[in-house]
From TrEMBL:
Bias kind Gly residues: ranges: 108-122
Protein name: Gliding motility lipoprotein GldK
Pfam family, any one: FGE-sulfatase
InterPro entries: CTDL_fold (IPR016187), Glid_motil-assoc_lipo_GldK (IPR019866), Sulfatase_Mod_Factor_Kinase (IPR051043), SUMF_dom (IPR005532), SUMF_sf (IPR042095)
Compositional bias segments (type: Low complexity): 135-148
Residues in Sulfatase-modifying factor enzyme-like domain copies: 40-94, 228-447
Segments for region (Disordered): 108-149
Organism annotation: Mesonia mobilis
Keywords from the UniProt entry: Lipoprotein, Signal
Superkingdom of origin: Bacteria
Annotated signal peptide: 1-21
Amino acid sequence: MKKVFLIIAVASFLASCNSGTQGQLVGARGKKWHPEKPYGMTEVPGGSFIMGKSDDDIAGLNNAPTKTVTVRSFYMDETEITNAEYRQFVYWVRDSIVRQKLAEAAEIGGGGGGDAEGGNGGSIQDYAFKGSQQEGGRNNGTGETTETPYQQYSIHYDPNKQRLNWDPEILWATAEYPDQDYVAVMDEIYLPDTQSYNGQRLMDVTKFEYSYKTMDIEAAARAQGDRSQFIKEEKVQVYPDTTVWIKDFSYSYNEPMHNSYFSHAAYDDYPVVGVSWTQAKAFCDWRTLIHNGYRKSKGEDNVDRYRLPSEAEWEYAARGGLESATYPWGGPYAKNDRGCFLANFKPLRGDYAADNSLYTVEADSYEPNDYNLYNMSGNVAEWVDSSYDAASYEYYSSMNPNVNDKDNKRKVVRGGSWKDVAYFLQVSSRDYEYADSARSYIGFRTVQDYLGNEVNLNQPPR
């Protein structure tokens, strides 16, 4: 009997080892990967180009000598990030913080419900933490999940035990507040009456803070052992600085832009401004979070992270495949053959309206370059993920070059803006601003690495 059992065990072992592989090296493969162009982005095929000033260095800056470099393929936003797109980020952070505060108050034991004076039915307990749950969301009986990982978890609690409750709507109107505990929480979100005017109840936007973690991969890769010392938590206030419209221009009336540019629907499709380099980085992390959270809920593989472009990637994309061009459309002039300006900038001697626009224009205005990218020159200058060093062209790599020194707070901005002269619109012109600074003429766009077979200029775009 023992001999029979041994024979069966050996046979089972051999069958399990050879099942599906026949003992051959076939690899441990993942799911089939299909490159997917993100919404609102265009594919920029990798390749080599001559980076730097191809014309005389009129300004005499000597900080952009020509150098042949190569960049890998990537996706890039067709337009600058708009007010509406950035507002989605702000609202997500705002709602997360409000739900966090409501859940914390409910956990303490509040919740008088409809019996409380002025109550409107329900209570703050409706917003209590939902406790632990299997990853992937709760099925609502229709085959769809009502929650996804990117909107479940509290940042202050163990994500395996405490999840934010996204089921009930947040009640913003004071007449709808369900109980006194809800009132107390919402009062924290708004400014006191002494800081409000014209009958408006204004939110304290300094409380809209996004928290995320980063790792200095370059430093960690060169170090040995524990990499925890290279991981850092970032906390960033996300609301754009609308006061830049006042602070950037002395003795100038720009109050309508200060009051309405970010918040009014009239400017939904205009590029967001008043956003610092650190805020732009936080936006990239959030965009990655919500995209991969959705994909995870569908059982799909993650996409690569969204990020700011490097200086080389930005210039390569801005050129649109035109070698040694002055502007994205070629050049050397900022007008076409009909005398129309090709970008939004400050032409002539301060005649801001000569190009038919006083401030910014819609993000998809003017003609795109040959990579289908709009306003790579003019409209708003753009943050890139590179530190400014006048000598960087002399020492950086010729393959995917980038210089990002965490101790150097001067970050490169490219492309020129609505208030700049034509020199700064040249695809090779360099400028910088400090990482924590915000301006009425600086915005950004994001990129995402292309995963899979490389696409380059020697083959047609996919």
